[in-house]
Design goal:
The radius of gyration is 17 Å and the shape is globular. 44% of the residues are buried. It is mainly alpha-helical. The protein has one domain. Helices cover 74% and strands 0% of the residues.
Length: 214
């Protein structure tokens, strides 16, 4: 392993992952600090809530790319193919999104970027594709059944390590999945409290369908 290239990869990964997409879109489109609106979170869900469906979708896609790009660059450009190296890059990407240097180390909750990392890994390692399909399916089922983005995200966080073990993923990938699970739970502490108190915001499906039909 070339330690210099790895160090460069980590720095590049952090800078990519740390891009505060929702904050930038809020400033450019509405001249606001999104941290002072909605839930105050710098993530795709709050972007949907505060900025609207099109900007929210763009934020979501970019945040996913913040996970895909570093992992694929590490393998395709820098030639890192070992599970451990790809795991390091993936964890750094999510950590950068969650604790971005550009916003005083306060960022999003890491779901979209974690998905991007998993997509990037599944591109490199075919054995992880069932894991990707399963966690996306779990998220959709929980979200459609209960209408809580946070609850679906927490279910997926717990499901990820279980799926990694089930497909006998490399040990480094299992460790990564546990770390990402802990990231999600830690970043969703306030959501967990609101869920237990019955105060968490539920997605209004009727409003969404009406908006898309206009």
């Amino acid at each position: 392993m070339n330690t210099v290239l790895l160090a460069i990869s980590i720095v590049v990964t952090y800078l990519i992952g740390a891009i505060p997409t929702a904050y930038i879109f809020g400033r450019l489109l509405k001249g606001i600090d999104i941290r002072q609106h909605g839930s105050g979170n710098v993530g795709a869900t709050n972007a949907f809530r505060v900025l609207g469906k099109v900007p929210g979708t763009m934020v979501l896609m970019i945040d996913i790319l913040k996970g895909i790009v570093p992992v694929t660059l590490a393998a395709g450009v820098f030639g890192f193919n070992s599970p451990l190296t790809l795991v390091i890059i993936g964890v750094v990407a999510v950590a950068a999104h969650n604790w971005t240097v550009f916003l005083n180390f306060k960022g999003g909750k890491g779901i979209a970027t974690s998905l991007g990392v998993l997509i990037g890994l599944a591109i490199q390692i075919s054995g992880l594709r069932p894991v990707l399909l399963t966690v996306v399916g779990v998220w959709l089922v929980i979200f459609l059944l209960f209408g809580y983005v946070s609850l679906a995200s927490l279910f997926v966080a717990v499901a990820l390590p279980i799926c990694m073990v089930a497909v006998r993923a490399p040990f480094a990938m299992i460790v990564m999945s546990i770390v990402l699970c802990l990231f999600v739970v830690f970043r969703h502490r306030s959501n967990i409290t609101r869920l237990l108190q019955g105060k968490e915001d539920r997605v209004n499906f009727k409003k969404i369908f009406c908006n898309f039909s206009q």
